[in-house]
Amino acid sequence: MAKILFLASIMLLSFYLTEQTIISDVGTIMLEVGENVDKNARNPRYVLDTKVHKEFDARKRWPKCKTIGEVLNDGNNLYSWAYANAAIFSDRKCIATNGVFNQFLSTEELISCSGIKAIENGISKGGVDQLRVWEYFKSHGLVSGGKYNTDDGCQPSKILPIGNLPTTLYKPECKNRCYGNKTIDYNHDHSKVSHKYKISYEDIQKEVQNYGPVSVQFFLYYDFYLYRNGVYSKTENSKFVRWQYAKLIGWGVENGVDYWLLVNSWGKEWGQNGLFKIKRGTNECSIETAIYAGEPERK
Ligand SMILES: *[C@@H]1O[C@H](CO)[C@@H](O)[C@H](O)[C@H]1NC(C)=O
Question: How far apart are CA 288 and CA 250, in angstroms?
């Protein structure tokens, strides 16, 4: 019952949102700004594994880092870009510090303070320039911040999870202090990256198995809401909703079909406990074209 209500609520909400903004031709998708920015001087602390594994799951490779497999809930708003990118930054910092840092960085600070906003209409709906996100991680950094309705970290999420009736409207409001765990010093809590880059299709696997999960964007179609298991590929006439972002944590082969393994941000009720598999190697829903990551600062 909870599951049906949940599905009904995400589908109705998206239907409402799409009807509000009739998909029109706003021209090309302006998401590819800048290429391979400062991808050099990698930290020698990483032990490089250049042979691509047939199957890979970052949760098993770095079992100490609990954020890798944790499923967040973006409220089915236009904020999955923030959830995916902040989460992979958290995972990568955990991997880089060998588990000393082991918590989420704040989606809330990213959404409310960076000034970055998803495009609201047309074919680019839901899209952001991910290099701007990583530029923000580099110049400003991100404080810690856990899930909705917790006091975990400096600035925990304020976005109501999917399926909850709104009690207040979410209004991003930038705060220069810690409102979650108030004993944390806001100014000293920021984590930064030393560099950021776009990853080409050929480099995805090596990147993930050596440095941790990456953030991907893909076209979200209606049939994706109904995904439960198996390897997703779009059904012929499914309607476009918007861009969606998710965290790519691995890959494998199922019944002869190559797939990517990803963590979505629609809670654990959706998909395979919040995760999904999508066809790999054919640029399904454009998922192999705009992939980003960065390297946490050495400290
Ligand atoms: C709050 O943060 C402090 C400093 O990082 C930490 O020692 C403490 O355990 C945290 N408290 C809670 C309840 O998480």
Answer: 13
Q: What is the DSSP string of 82-129?
A: HHHHHHHHHHHHHHHTTTSS-S-B-HHHHHHHS------SGGGTT---
d(CA 108, CA 159): 8
- What pTM did the predictor assign? 0.88
Helix 80-96 and helix 130-139, axial crossing angle in degrees, nearest 10: 50
> What pLDDT sits at residue 9?
53
**Arithmetic mean of pLDDT over the chain:** 88
Per-residue pLDDT of 9-40, as tens digits, reads 555 444 444 433 333 332 333 333 333 444 44
User: What is the distance in angstroms between the CA of the first residue and the CA of the last residue of the chain?
Assistant: 48
Which residue lies with its CA nearest to atom 11 of ligand 1? 181
- Give me the pLDDT at residue 166, please: 73
The β-bridge relationship of strands 193-199 and 275-279 is unpaired
Residue 115 to residue 132: CA distance in whole angstroms: 10
Condensed to tens digits (0 to 9), the pLDDT of residues 146-183 reads 999 999 999 999 999 988 877 778 899 999 999 999 99
Residue 184 CA, ligand 1 centroid: distance in Å: 7
Return d(Cα 275, Cα 286) in angstroms, integer: 18
Query: How many residues belong to the chain?
Result: 299
151 CA → ligand 1 middle, Å: 9
Distance CA 219, CA 207 (A): 23
CB-based pocket (< 6 A), ligand 1 = 181, 183-184
- Average pLDDT of the residues in 241-270: 97
CB environment 101-137: b (16+ within 10 A), e (fewer)? beebbbbbbbbbbbebebbeebbbbbbbbbbbbbbbb
